[in-house]
Amino acid sequence: MIRKGILEFDLEEPDARDAFKRAVLADDAYMVLNEISDEIFRPARKHGYPDRRIQNYINDLDQKLRDGEQNPILEVLSLLEENFRDILIEHGITLE
User: Fold this and answer.
1) φ and ψ of 40, to 5 deg
2) Confidence (pLDDT) at 24
3) Per-residue pLDDT tens digits for 7-59
4) Which of 10, 35, 55, 70 is 20 to 30 A (C-alpha) from 43?
């Protein structure tokens, strides 16, 4: 038994054109999200970050928390966001 799925869009309608573009890029978006998971979130659980800036901030945070100083978590989040955007740009994906 062959099962088929057909998506149909009225490309005259702006909202439908946008939906069509999202459907066409869905596979790319899926691959990008997996890459984000592998490069940004997985290192925190496994072996550390290859981006030394991020790993150094994490190490500094550990030390500063031990010393009672304010932690640099905002800097870490900023670097994570920068990495996220770089991966999206590499794949030609925008979230607008």
Assistant:
1) -110, -45
2) 94
3) 999 999 999 999 999 999 999 988 998 888 888 877 877 777 888 888 888 78
4) 70
**Cβ atoms < 10 Å from Cβ of 55:** 15
Q: Could you tell me if 9 and 20 are in contact, meaning their C-beta atoms sit under 8 angstroms apart? A: yes
Q: Which element (helix H / strand E) includes 6?
A: none
- 68 Cβ contact partners less than 8 Å away, ≥ 6 residues apart: none
* Cα(42)–Cα(7) distance, integer angstroms: 34
Pair of tokens at residue 48: 């550390």
Give the HSE-up count for residue 81: Cα atoms under 13 Å, Cβ half-sphere: 6
Give the global pTM.
0.59
Secondary structure percentages of the chain, helix, strand, coil, to 5: 70, 0, 30
